[in-house]
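Quick one - inputs below.
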Amino acid sequence: MKGTMIIDGRKIDFDGEKNILEVVRKAGISLPTFCYHSELSIYGACRMCMVEDKWGNTFASCSQLPKDGMEVFTNTPKVQKYRKNILEMILANHDRDCTACDRTGKCQLQELAVRFGIKDIRFDEIEKSLPIDKSSLSIVRNPNKCILCGDCVRVCEEVQGVGALSFAHRGSSMTVSAAFDRDIAEVNCINCGQCRAVCPTGAIIIKKENHKVWEAIHNKRKRVIAQVAPAVRVALGEEFGLEPGEITIGKIVAALKTIGIHEVYDTAFAADMTVIEESKEFVERLTKGENLPLFTSCCPGWVKFAENKFPDMVDNISTCKSPQQMFGAVIKEYYKKIDKEEDKETILISVMPCTAKKAEAAREEFEYNGVKDVDIVITTQELALLIKEAGIIFEQLEEESFDMPFGLASGSGIIFGATGGVTEAVVTRLLKDKPDHFAKDLLFSDVRGMENLKEASFDVDGKEVKVAIVHGLKVANDLINQIKAGERYYDFVEVMACPGGCIAGGGQPVPMDTAMRKERAKGLYKLDRTSHIKSSEKNPLVMSLFEDLLKDNHELLHVHKKSGADA
Amino acid sequence: MLTLEMKDTIDEVVMKHGSKQSSIITILQEIQGNYRYLPEEVLEYIANKMDITPSKIYGIATFYENFSLEPKGKYVIKICDGTACHVRKSIPILNALHKELGLSKDKQTTDDLMFTVETVSCLGACGLAPVLNINEKVYGKMTPESTVELLNKLREEI
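Output:
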């Protein structure tokens, strides 16, 4: 719908905005919200976005369509009073232990309390003392800090199609809880952390492992190595006042070195290995016509989702380990002998945009004779905290480059962090004539971008290969059902659990929106363009590893048993 | 554990009402009619069958007072504590029942699963206040003494 609204006396044109709230924001007024996220359904529970019309009626602007000629006011005495009242009531019902809270300084509730000058809460604090759920490897849920906005419930169901959380009970005893009030680790949660990314307060936070990093660093017997995933380098800057998409990899390496990590490598190096192994597997399956479509295996949220919901499709998932786990397997093998000689123990820390990577690293198939591929997984948010804990002034860091030999990556390995990246890398590997950047922009235009489902077909050695790319598991769920029903056919399907791919993972700085995701993805494509090595098999260090360490050791790179599957 | 027989019963109920999500409340009511409560395994089985998440079914089952996730007694005694019954002394009746059966506000069902005692807001029979209701049968103008007598009669029936 098109038209003009009058907001606080100013004429504002609208064209397709889905509610008055969006029009008000267009007018440059930041109406407060807890329960409104443009990507989720409209819930209208928090009532913070109330406006008043010229007849004195108040209503939630998120839940009303804009109308031509409509006049609303955003700061009348009435709405100001209501907003304050609501905030006071939420605060009375909220665990206000702000100093010890993870979200302090970044909590939306705290921010609005400051913004609206709440100094005195007229209602008694209701102490709920509900148990804190620490069962998950990825997140911690504290229902005492929950304001019942329902953001986590809706993201889990509408975007991820998981529905691990829901509202339970009624009235003043209402809570957000997993089925039968079970611990979140006991239900179908896939550890993606999107609930944490939308939570406005400290009710859902990342399970921190920073203390383990410090313990490793302070132990002289440990050789501490870090790998940094592609998506971290285009988002960490946001924690230090930089724009989304700004590339900070030099500073990240420098910071990790300053903290005391001995060697810092690039997960994109392992992504190059993944590309080579996965394309090989793909060609084999294409030739044999077996287990098609091939589903990618890089995303642990997706793998767990598939195991829960589509156990019959698990064989279609690539047997390749994810880059994180490939990297771990290679590093541990590489240092096995050296560690023995030097009487040391290698500890591998992953720096990831993802909360599910914590759960992935803990899976039993990624441990050999008591040695884990990856020992500690910290997210982008935890890295930012680590830098702050160490007192490092991020702005003043002198950039450093990755260590060798595992620090060199092709552009293909780097774009793994954005939706479509894995597909682009695998297809590039399979094409005989490698496209230059201009040709790539054209060839992969259908593969890039933020549409939830992207389709493309490529000519590989005269054969048409059909691919699909999905991000957000709800869309993946629907697509798989269509594939199973024979309504669609693909040879290759890339699935990323989080909308936008790893750049918008559950461990990334918040809040996130589509514009931000695009900027972060742009950062990765920029790195691809400026990379010296265009495709994975041109990475000389990866190739020499295949000739040497991995010559008779290919099983290091593959998963042999997926728990949950029968095999 | 869910027995084969239970699965058959549930399948039948779901088939009868259709597995569209809007039928869920009717289905739960009928299932509860069968088992006198909603066992966890049953809810999980229904969730799977109807493609509703277990968390959502749990939400529905805990939202409505009428649904119970705890086993209820063979006799469910509902004491009306609406305004009319309350002023005509329904609470002493509740206390008498609690005392007689060893129950309380937090423990509503006897260990032998024979009796459940709960309060309801209004049974719509204010002219007969104070009223109680045992398995759909209404008893009016009760006193603590007549209630205990009634209870003893029920005990003899068992």
